[in-house]
Each structure stands twice: as structure tokens, then as C-alpha cells.
Specification:
The protein has 614 residues and is mainly alpha-helical. The chain contains 24 helices and six strands. Pfam families: Xan_ur_permease.
Amino acid sequence: MNSAITGCEHPAPLRGDGVLSSHSDGQSRKKDGLPRSTSSNHLAYDILDIPPWYICIFLGIQHFLTALGGLVAVPLILAKDLCLQHDPLTQSYLISTIFFVSGICTLLQVLLGVRLPILQGGTFAFVAPSLAMLSLPAWKCPEWTFNASQVNTSSPEFIEEWQKRIRELQGAIMVASCVQMLVGFSGVIGFLMRFIGPLTIAPTISLVALPLFDSAGSNAGSHWGIAAMTIFLIVLFSQYMKNIAVPVLVYGREKKCHTTKFRLFQVFPVLLALCISWLLCFVLTVTSTFPSAPTAYGYLARTDTKGSVLSQAPWFRFPYPGQWGLPTVSLAGVFGIIAGVISSMVESVGDYYACARLVGAPPPPKHAINRGIGIEGLGCLLAGAWGTGNGTTSYSENIGALGITRVGSRSVIVAAGCVLLLMGILGKIGAAFATIPTPVIGGMFLVMFGVITAVGISNLQYVDMNSSRNIFVFGFSIYCGLAIPNWVNKNPERVQTGILQLDQVIQVLLTTGMFVGGFLGFLLDNTIPGSLEERGLLAWTQIQESEESTKASKVYSLPWGIGTKSCTSSRVQCLPFWPRLEHGGKGAGRASQLTLCSQDSSGEHQKGAAETRM
């Protein structure tokens, strides 16, 4: 299939052979005979662009590193309540399994789900109900498992102790995931979208990152010098040096080996900052500059604090469904995880809109949202079957990385999914990435969470913020989304109804800031009188309608012509998650072909080429 070429700005233009060609520094392109400078809001790669394969690999690794902290944190948080605090080898197995399943779910989401460049990974929304379930008297770890001298990690007794707990988690996650698939594929979530506007989305997205300031600050506070250097490097590369073209050596069919200029700092700011900070920590560890006492300040900046995981992990290990045994199910676990599913769905819908804004895509239509939530439910089912001890959801950290790198190509996320699959199989290499020092991860998260918060607030541009109604709705939702979870976390004993399962559901919901803020925004926005224009729904709807038949059909349609060239019967079109035919049925299939950016022989954009802006 010959791809047509549409406009977008690359760090360096692409030639026909896919090699980055050189360009003159400071020379602006022209439009209508007038020079036009490159805007700081231009994307390096649009969602429909396909960067060269080597760029995709490096960017995929960068996304993997961005998600690494969350992916590794979930199994390590659960380790104590699974009786695994003295079994680092099994912990590495859980980490490899969550890598592998996250890779599968990422590929499913990008290819068949919402089709936005969103990485899938373990969700913290499931951690609270999981810990609540494991804290029940029937599932508390025996006292002898807390004493390292009494734990024999290879004994059948110890293996059964932790495996029966993770099997209980597996069963609860698998049953709860069926609810998420039902809500997604039945179109319930798409139906609710007609009542969800900017005043619901803005507090939801903002509260994804705002409550995490404590954990990000704690990680960075393990050594503020290293964290500050990581932040400085990310900001330096992504904001101040983004337009600097670095000479690189490339190989092409025409010119063979030659040099070209590439905006390295704009595309790889996070990866470069992590590598430099990691290397500095390694040098300071080898030279014994960092303290060796575990309780001393700066110890977590050492690169050998997790050396036991690296030394004991096997080189190759293939995770498989049911590797811990047959899952079991209890009512308390299912109700608790369902509360996590609700929070995860609310967060994911907000992530879809945030990601679409950052990559220059139109807001996702209902069928794409239905499909995305349904595929996330399928991902949770797979995570439960494989035994990660957790589900999967869209990763907000990687959406923040999209805003910093300005690379919105979903081909990069496909590469990231393949990297996750590989790391899940190569246990030794995956464990090596787990040795990234804690303050480096904390510094990266501080930058990412700031970007996510700003993206959430930017949705208010569609709303009349001169209206006292809208100011109240947004301000009250944000404040309650911070205050109520903080109070419930400090006073869990006050939330008691006498029914344990109901208490768990209420506690999980009220301690999830994005659920509290999003629910209040949804309730107040739909009950307090206000015009459609004042609420931002008019502009919101116009944007969706204006781009529904053009770029939206390319971004959110299924691959390989499904729904446009094949499977176009009226019965299939009635499915809530199936893409709608636009302007003439099968003829619209041509609009869903993948397109790239192009230039004519003079280096100017072809006439009619569209510009992609954030």
C-alpha cells in the first residue's frame, strides 16, 4: 500500500529510504511564500507517522523506562502481604510476569483498542483493595514468614503460603475484569460520555497526578541532589535544547554512510537524563561516595541496593497462564477489585482525552472509548490468568512523556510493547532495569506528574472560566478530590457499615482522588443550571463533529480495513464498539490508510497538507 503524505514537522525530514536527511539550521520552511518558524508546539512525530525503526526502538525503550517505576513498584508493594518480603527471586518472577503481560495488553490496546499511543501496565487502583483483602484474618501471613532465618524459600510449605494468596488475587481480578469488559463492549461507558464534559475530565486528569506528589517527593527525597540533577537534565533537554540538531552517523541506500543532523534532545530527553543520572550514581557507588548503611541518607541512590534480584534472576523465563496454580474466588476480593475497576475506568477515560490532546488527535469517539475500556478489561483478565497479582490500565506517566518528547506516533508504543514482552522473557535484563536508583525515578516522576496535571487543567479552555458556576464546580471538585481521600486514609475506622465487603468498596472509592473529583465534577456539572456553551459542551461537541469524518476515521478505525473494507454489514455496524462508516461506506476505507509527512522536491510541504499541533 502506497502511503499518502500529510503534514507534520519532524526533527529532520524523512527521505524515501527512511533515513533522516540533513537540513539547514535556522532555515524556516515557507508557506504561501512567507517564512514560517517552527512552533514549539509542533509534534516531532504525529500519531499516524512511522519513525525509522531505530528511532522506534530507542523511543520504545524510553517509554519502558518511564513506566518502569510503576511496573516494579506494584509487585514490590504486594510482596509483604503475599509473604514474599524475604524471597527476592519470586519477586523478580512477578516483575517479569507483569512486564510480559503489560506488553501483550499494550499491543492489544494500540492495535485493537482505543488505538491511541498509550502504554498499558499495572494499576495502583487495584493495590488498595488487594491489600485490604490480604489484611483479612484468613489471609494474614504467619509470623514465621516475617523472620528471614525461618524462611526456606524452596520448601513446599512456604511456596503454598504465598501461592494460595496470589491465586485468591487472581480469581478476584478475573471476575472483576468481566465487569469491565461488559461495561466497555456493551457501550455503557460510551453512553455516559454524552454527560461527561470538560468540567468532569479536567479534575479527573488533574487528580491522576496531584495525589502522587507525596510518593514522587519521597522517592526524590531519598537523595535530592540526584533527583534535582535528573529534573534539570530533563528540562534542559526537552525545553532549552530541543531545537539543537546533533550530527549523527546514518546509513542509506543512496549515500551509504554519511552524517545528518537530528534533534536528539527533543526526541530522547527522558532516556538521556536517566542514563546520565544512572551512570553518575554508578560511579558514586563504586567510589563509595554514597553511604553503605541502609538507614543512612543517600543509600537508595546506590546502584547495588537491589543486587540480589539481579544475581538470582534467570536469563530466560517464559511466564504462562496458571503458573501459580488454579485461581480461587471470594466475594470480599471480588467486590474490592470491582471498586478498583471503577476507578481505573474513570482514570482511563481521562487518559484517553489527555493523550489525544498531546498527540494532536481529535477527541476519541464513543466506539473507540467503548473498545478501549473493553480491551482494558480483557487485559485485566489476562493479568489475572498469568498471575501478576494486579490488573492493567493506561499509564499516566507515559502520557506525560508524550508531552515532553513531542513524539505521538503509535508505532513507538508498539515498539514499547515489544520491549516489554522481551523484558518479560529475558529475566536477567529485566531485573537489571530494576536497579535504577530511587531518586532518579523520583525526579522523573516529578516532571511527568507536573505535565499530566497541566494537561488536565488545559481542558478548561473550552469552558467559560469567567462564569462563577464553572469556577465553583472545578475548584470544589479538585479540593474535595484532595481533602476527602486524605481524611479517609487517616481515619479508616470511621468508615464502618458493619458489612466488610461494603466497607472495602466505600473505602477504596473515597481514597481515590480522581474518582472523588471526577464524580463531583460530573454530578455538579449535570445538575447546576448552565448553558451548553457555558459548560464547554458546545465547543467540545463541535470539535468531535468537525474531525469525526476526517482524521478521527484514520486514528480510531480498526487496522487492516476491518469495519471499512471488510465486516461492514449492518448487523456488525450496530455493535457499540465497532467503527462507523463515514461518507459512502466502503469508499471511506481509503481514509483509514496510514499516512506520513511529505515534502515536494523543493523541500516545501505539499499543498493542502495538514499541520499537526498540540
